Amino acid sequence: MSGAWLAPVGVLADALVRGDAAVLAHVRELVASGAVDALVLGADRLAVDALPSTEPVGVATVLAGRLPGVGLVTVSGEPADHPYHTARRTLTLDHLTGARTGVLFAGGGLPGKETAERVRLVRELWNTWPVGSIVGDRDARVYAHVEEVRDVAHVGARYSVAGALGTPSSRQGEPVSAAHVTTSDEVAALAGLVDVLVVDDVGLVDDRAGSRLYVRLVAGGSHAAGSHAAGSHAAGSHAAGSHAAGSHAAGPHAAGPHAAGPRVAGSSGTAVPAGADGVVLVVADPADLPRVDDGPDAATAHAATAHAAAAHAAAASTLRGRLGLPPRTVDLSDRPRTFGAPA
Questions:
Q1: Per-residue pLDDT reduced to its tens digit, 14-54
Q2: What is each CA distance from 241 to 6, 40, 221, 263, in whole angstroms?
Q3: What does each C-alpha distance from 307 to 188, 261, 338 come to in angstroms?
Q4: Residue 300 in 3-state DSSP?
């Protein structure tokens, strides 16, 4: 199911952290089949009045080795996460995982322009030390062209940050950026600034400005029900399977590496809403995880998946590659140099 992110909460999230062998095996199967591109960690933080929970980057670090190949998208909620600390933690995670990470920003009820400032600042910080500046030339005794390292030099309405990160930029350009938007104000401020807009209602967005559009769905229901949906427990037994691989065929991901993958059980149920590129599926109960269907066409589907996976192996080693997103950076060439003479 290309364009699907799984957001474990409650019992399911606890099982993953504990290392429940059956649950981990099920998620590995979903990833290998193309049914899931990424896990969203910390989805309970999307609620406006969310209480502090286990820090998502720490959870992602634990799961990185247990679930090789899966994308790891961590939720950054306001006011808990200062942009500098968000940028530092998430870029470090990106290097630890081989560039298969992303960040889902939550507005926390703030005006869209304030969330946009936070997102813009994090993206700028990710780019303060270009990884291409590292040359490792022993003969010339040069590790990096430090003149390319730039201070972010940001002074805004909410934040002021002067320096650079001490971590080189990602080999995927930047971690994938996403934002959960619930108002037209947030859409106007964040469309185009992030790679993916996550909504509870497709009708909220008239102009994506180049961003992809994912819809948040909850196992046991259809669309996310209000700001507390990410923290709710699932109802029903197999409802999660209703968000199917086949429902993406008309979207822009249809030609991607996972388009021909095995069907997910329940594919005849709730489809991804028209106009969306994918889903963020919130699941609390392991019993509600999507199932790879081993029906009559399973052998053909598995063969197609294997062929597509081999063809796209190099690109899919990063989360951007897996999602078919191009590399992305922010040009900071007009900012002050961190070392040496001013720019």
A1: 999 999 999 999 999 999 888 899 999 999 888 767 666 77
A2: 12, 17, 11, 10
A3: 40, 10, 47
A4: helix
The answer to whether the CB of 216 falls within 8 A of the CB of 279 is: yes
Q: Is 102 helix (H, G, I), strand (E, B) or coil?
A: strand
Domain 4-323 has CATH 3.20.20: yes
Question: How crowded is the C-beta side of 168, counted as CA atoms within 13 Å?
Answer: 17
Sign of the torsion formed by the C-alpha atoms of 110, 275, 7 and 102: negative
Domain boundaries, the chain: 4-323
Q: What is the mean pLDDT of residues 259-273?
A: 40
Helix axes 112-126, 83-96, angle to 10 degrees: 50
For residue 286, cis peptide bond before it (omega within 30 degrees of 0): no
User: What is the rounded CA–CA span in Å between residue 102 and residue 125?
Assistant: 15
**Cα separation of 257 and 313, whole Å?**
9
Name, in order, each residue with C-beta under 8 angstroms of 183's C-beta and a sequence gap of 6 or more.
112, 204
pLDDT in tens, 159-216: 999 999 999 999 999 999 999 999 999 999 999 999 999 999 988 998 999 999 999 9
Record the tokens describing residue 83, joined without a space: 């942009």
Q: Are strands 142-144 and 154-155 parallel, antiparallel or unpaired?
A: unpaired
Low-confidence winner among 57-66, 164-173, 282-291, 333-342 (lowest mean pLDDT): 333-342
Taking a C-beta distance cutoff of 8 angstroms, is the pair 67, 24 a contact?
Answer: yes
| Run of H or E residues at 29 | helix 21-33
Residue 65: strand, helix, or coil: helix
**Cα separation, 7 vs 74, whole angstroms:** 10
Handedness of CA 291, 294, 296, 300 (dihedral sign): positive
CB of 94 closer than 8 Å to CB of 166: no
Residue with tokens 């049914």: 35
261, 1 contact by CB (below 8 A): yes
